[in-house]
Amino acid sequence: MSDHHHEKPAVQLHDLGDGKAAYRRIFLVFVTLAVLTIIEFLVTPLESAVLLFILAFLKAALVVYFFMHVYRLWREDAH
Amino acid sequence: MAAVTIGHDDHHDDHHEHAPEIPYPVQLRSNRVGLWLFCISEIFLFAGLLAARFYLWRVSPDMVASHPAYEVEVGEILRPELSQTVGFITTAMLLVSSYYMVRAEVAAEHGHRGRMVRSLWVTFVLGLLFLLGVVIIEWGTMPELAQAITGHSPIRPTDGVFGAVLFAMTGMHAIHVTTGLIFILILIGNSRKGWYQPGRTWGVEACAIYWHYVDVVWIFFYPALYLIGTVWH
User: Which range of residues forms the domain containing residue A29?
Assistant: First the structure.
């Protein structure tokens, strides 16, 4: 990482509005997770471990990407 | 990522040796990599517990011999008798707590301090309820209450492979939830001192990543404990 970070603000101030879009996005992800959890509960009588694990991986992927922001690991800016 | 030199400076004076300032984005990136490496290392622990669950909670030839009335085959996946309602409610609590945690993070990033603190409190309370649900009901710390809610006697750690694996999985997870709760309390205390400003929210982000990680672990534990397999009475 070069010295150019000294010349810039500590973070990219690109999203310091009221954050409505961010709040809406996390709410939609939460609703999706809730729906997937209900589906998980309802498909239990099918006795399909594979289906339940697919649903679990899908939920985990949503949390890792949207809640844990794994993509930030590869980004140069602070946010 | 290029290296940041933290070595000797030939031009330092004898009285004041200044540590070179590491740019905040570089610090932040290193912090994130470190925390993710920690999370990855923990995967081995929880994956080991999951492997133990699927290896040990199966019908053995001894089980078939001792329970001839049961229509099960050797190798069939089993699970202990746990309350579906309790499992679903505790899972829902953890999921909602995860939502409030990410809400707190977004609030911190946008300078909404009041909303951040409120969201952290909701996260804390839901996490605590999850923990109490596991400790009181699933562990049978209060056996009468647990039996009244679930309708059956709680499993004890000494109840063979079912008890041992159930307590190992929920116990290890509960330790992580407890750590997360302490982390959240520290965060609430610090945020009241005004530590987290837009652009400087690593503490909140770190706590959120940890809390979501605990949630991800439960995402796999929930079907493994409550949904997959035939109930073994």
Answer: 19-74
